[in-house]
Write a structure and sequence with these properties.
Alpha-D-Glucose-1,6-Bisphosphate, Chain A, domain 3; 7-stranded antiparallel β-sheet; 22 strands; about 20% strand; alpha/beta; about 475 residues; TATA-Binding Protein
Length: about 475
């Protein structure tokens, strides 16, 4: 089974591989046929990012979909959230975005959704893999499907601005770093419509043109080297804030007016507070890695918080179950009920822009209001031969006997003034550790040393990426 390239490109929640190795046009064709059959689809939306392999994979995927008698609504160059939107707006049976997100240029993949932009169920994803890996296709169909090139960008822009609203301004200055991904065309359409409505901030564009060679490096805003580029641009321009996206712009990241990177949990806390303050008693969803500032913000906004496992499949499902107005992850994914409970990299920066205009406060001050002395380690990754055994030892350690415990995603230990979460990675053979404290930096560092010592004494080693 492992010699089949189709099997090797299926991950836990998506499909990803190296083009020409385990992700080929033949694999793409088979996945197209399998998806149409799995969803019993009549129409599937397809879009792709700017990677050099994307057009070839798109053609093969669409041919496979059409071979099963299903039509394709083809967006061409687009972002993942544009595929989400079009799938819902066109009442399609499914959608596929061809992208490898923040991964290197030689990689590509498929983000696959069902009707109403819902993630595939575990059963559907398994069936898709089985079908694509074999020859179990329905043949002798009455007719082939057809591929029609379409655009829903105008409608997408209207939906985004209906969600965020806008405020008139000519005074704000924003640095936007596309990383040569595909956000530029969609953002240009948003910026143009804002101008039509009297909102004309000065936009300073970086790496704006889509370029699948990624001449300035892989578009991963979590890399320190990439953060420095955006931060320096913010300071040099005297901008009010900066925003950077990954290649398919389903994630976004913020920098305040001093160029300081806004950590994931602070961005979630900021957006949760804003949205809950406008929807009294509503619910926000978040992941368990770092929660202290988020839960404090939700409480102050008189909202309700629900923890969900890390990953878009779990976040979206929990949002629908809880009818949550918003969901956020430390990884830069932000989910909105009014956007099919899907993640958007466009909505968050427009919400932040409006906050700055309406409050008159700098972003650093707004972030300080939600941080309130809460400190976090950031995600620390460790290699470990037996992750489960180490998590069990942490749980059984007598020095942690008075902690509150949660197993929503890995193990969370909650103490009076600090907490930790440790979980096995779903994509790599790693343990991911987050520690946070309410109080001094000394307290945080003391707890980090304590837990890391336990890790190392049980054979874990820091992972160097």
């Amino acid at each position: 089974m492992t010699s089949n390239p189709t099997n090797r490109c299926f991950k836990k929640y998506d499909i990803r591989g190296v083009f020409g190795e385990n992700l080929t046009t033949i694999v793409a064709y088979d996945i197209g046929r399998a998806l149409a059959q799995t969803l019993e689809a009549r129409k599937i939306v397809v879009g792709f990012d700017c990677r050099l392999s994307s057009p070839d994979l798109s053609e093969a995927l669409c041919n496979g979909i059409c071979a099963q008698g299903c039509d394709v609504a083809h967006l061409g160059l687009s972002g993942t959230e544009e595929v989400y939107f079009a799938t819902d707006a066109l009442a399609a049976d499914g959608g596929v975005q061809i992208t490898a997100s923040h991964n290197p240029a030689d990689q590509n993949g498929f983000k696959v959704i069902g009707p109403q932009a819902r993630p595939l169920s575990a059963e559907e994803f398994t069936r898709l893999k089985v079908l694509a890996s074999g020859t179990f296709f329905k043949n002798h169909l009455p007719k082939l499907g057809a591929t029609l090139e379409i655009s829903t960008r105008r409608e997408y822009v209207d939906r985004v601005l209906a969600i965020t609203g806008f405020a008139r301004t000519t005074s704000k200055k924003v640095v936007v770093n596309a990383g040569n991904g595909v956000v530029g065309p969609a953002a240009d359409a948003i910026i143009a419509e804002l101008a039509n409505r009297g909102c004309t901030p000065e936009i300073i564009k970086m790496a704006w043109e889509p370029d699948g060679t990624f001449p300035f490096g892989v578009p991963n805003p979590l890399l320190k080297s990439n953060q420095e580029i955006t931060a320096n641009a913010v300071k040099s321009a005297g901008a009010d804030f900066g925003v950077a996206w990954d290649a398919d712009f389903d994630r976004c990241f913020f920098f305040d007016e001093t160029g300081k990177f806004v950590s994931g949990e602070l961005a979630v806390a900021l957006l949760a507070r804003r949205l809950l303050s406008h929807h009294k008693g509503a619910t926000a969803v978040y992941d368990p890695r770092a929660v202290l500032c988020i839960e404090n913000s939700i409480k102050k906004a008189n909202g309700r918080g629900v923890i969900a496992k890390v990953g878009h499949v779990h976040q979206k499902r929990t949002m629908r179950e809880a009818d949550a107005i918003y969901g956020g992850e430390l990884s830069g994914h932000h989910y909105f009920r009014e956007f099919m409970c899907c993640d958007s990299g466009m909505i968050p920066w427009l919400v932040v822009l409006r906050m700055l205009i309406e409050t008159g406060k700098p972003l650093s001050e707004l972030v300080d209001e939600v941080s309130l002395g809460f400190r976090s380690s950031g995600e620390l990754n460790y290699q470990c031969a037996d992750s489960k055994s180490l998590i069990d030892k942490l749980n059984e350690d007598k020095s942690f006997s008075d902690a509150g415990r949660s197993w929503v995603d890995g193990l969370s230990l909650d103490f009076k003034s600090w907490r930790l979460n440790v979980r096995s990675s779903s994509t790599e053979n790693l343990l991911r550790l987050n520690i946070e404290a309410a109080g001094s930096e000394d307290l945080l560092q003391e707890r980090i040393r304590e837990v890391v010592a336990l890790f190392v004494s049980n054979g874990a080693r820091p992972h160097v990426s």
